[in-house]
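New to this. Please check this record:
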Amino acid sequence: SGELQVFDQLSENSAGFERNSFLDRLTQELGACIIAPLKKEHVTIGMLILGYSRPIVFSVNQMRLVTAISDMAGSALHRMNVAVSLEKMAKDRSRELESISHIVSTASASADLNDALPQVMRLILSVVNAKMGRLILLDEDTTQIKISVDEGMTADARLGTMDHNLETSLEGWVIRHNT
């Protein structure tokens, strides 16, 4: 329900809940319990169950204290999840930056662009988990489009992409429109 539930006397038919092994154990082992929701803002993300060996009449102060504890616990769990997510994002970003650095260093290590580009393409495909890649460059002197690297494409796929005219090809359109 998202609200504090107080059971000052547990019995076999407590609160009309559907029977399950957890509730059965509670009614056999405990005399009373409080179930407090753990919330992130207004969304219940879990619950805190406090059990007592004998029946108890819970005071308003006890219920307020348990509510405050469960509110703080819900907030703390949410902050921990956010911190874990941020740490994962930072690690992922660090790996991406390392990969980019490796790609750049590989590309600049060779004086011969034709040797470096296939290595760079393989690294890029590995980093982004892609099956194939093609690097198409525009020769600025001749305004011709040429395939510089083609990794992972089948021979049939290569044959279907022979038109590299700046005016009529898809590649040319992308270059002309800067997209």
User: Anything to note?
Assistant: The first strand starts at residue 5 and ends at 7. The radius of gyration is 32 Å. The mean pLDDT is 76.
